[in-house]
Amino acid sequence: MTQIPSKSEILAFIADNPTQTAKRDIARAFGIKGAARIDLKRILKELEEAGKLTKRRSSYRDAEDLPPVAVLEILAPDADGDLFARPLEWTGQGPEPRVLMLLRSSDPALGAGDRILGRLTLDKTEDHTHTARMIRRIGTNPMRILGVFRAGSEGGRVLPIDKGADKQWVVPAGATGGAKDGELVEAEQAGPKGRLGLPKARIVARLGDPTAPRAVSLIAIHQHGIPDHFPDDAVAEADAAKPVGVKGRKDLRDLPLITIDPWDARDHDDACFVEADEDPANAGGFIIWVAIADVAAYVKPNTALDNEARKRGNSTYFPDRVVPMLPDRLSGDLCSLHEGVDRACIAVAMRIDAQGQKIGHEFHRGLMKSVASLNYEEVQDAIDGQPNDKTAPLMQDIIRPIYAAYAALVKARALRQPLELDLPERQIILNDDGKVTSVQFKERLDAHRLIEEFMVLANVAAAETLIAKKSPLLFRVHEEPNPDKLDALRDVAQASGLVLAKGQVLKTAHLNRLLIAARETEQSDLINMATLRSMTQAYYSPDNLGHFGLALRSYAHFTSPIRRYSDLIVHRALIAAHGWGKDGLSPWDVENLGDTAQKISDTERRSMSAERDTTDRYLAAFLSDRIGVEMGGRISGIAKFGVFVKLDETGADGMIPIRTLGREYFHYDADSQTLMGSDSGTLIRLGQRVTVKLIEAAPVTGGLIVELLTLDERTMPRGPSVTRGKPVRRKQAGAKAKAAKIARKVKRTRM
Question: Do residues 596 and 589 make contact, with C-beta atoms less than 8 angstroms apart?
Answer without folding.
Answer: yes
